[in-house]
Amino acid sequence: MIPSVSPTVAAPRLSLFTGRNSLLDRYFYFAMSLVSAAAVVAGFSQTVDERLLHPDIAPPRILWVHGFTFSAWILIFILQSALVRTRNVKWHRAIGWVAAAIAAIMVPLGVMTAIRMVHFETYSLHMPHRYAFLAVPFFDIGVFGLCMALAICWRKSPEFHRRLVFFATCGLLVAAFARMDHAYARQHNLSYVGVDLMLALGICRDLLVNRRIHTVYRVGVPLYYVAQFGVIYLAATGPDWWVRIGRAIAD
Known about the structure:
The protein is globular and about 55 Å long. Helix 1 (23-44) crosses helix 7 and helix 6 (158-172) runs antiparallel to helix 9. By secondary structure, the chain is mainly alpha-helical. It starts with 22 loop residues before the first helix and ends with a helix. It is 74% helix and 0% strand. The chain contains 11 helices and no strands. The protein has one domain (23-250).
């Protein structure tokens, strides 16, 4: 009599890109935190020496504070993503309140820095048409502040929270992407393309992993894309009414 042999159960294959628990599911947001850091280094390395370290005319000191706080945010974004990836939830939640405090500082600091820099560029560097440009930093800071406020409110809902923090960080990267090819990007109004592509990757990740687009992207991204046209219009064309507002704010 031949003994029966039980069939061998094959171990499930780990998918790279599709389905829950795939590599894309587990590592996407950590990878995007590293992409954010790379964008900051690649972008600001083009101008940091000329405009901050060894400028012909020293910029306002608030620019140093802004640069330090911005860098701290990128580092904490990487750290928080790594803690989630390694399942250190306790540390993630504790450091999350530090991140919330930094975010709360960054919003008014970003507004004040934008105003001081437009005033400095207009009167010290004699750069024309800077008042209209205030539309860009005001919009970017506003997106960051709104997304972070919502992320804090939904901190107990991981699916909302992590997408909102990612969205908020993307909102800060416009200046970095613009500086990668500063002249071309400004001339052709392409400052937002890098950020748009990052958000598009977030949508692709949802489609591959969850087979649907999360509400954060489904609602937020179309509004963000549409609002960009208004911001670019204000910054590029400088209508009189907006220039008057910008002059009143910066002067």
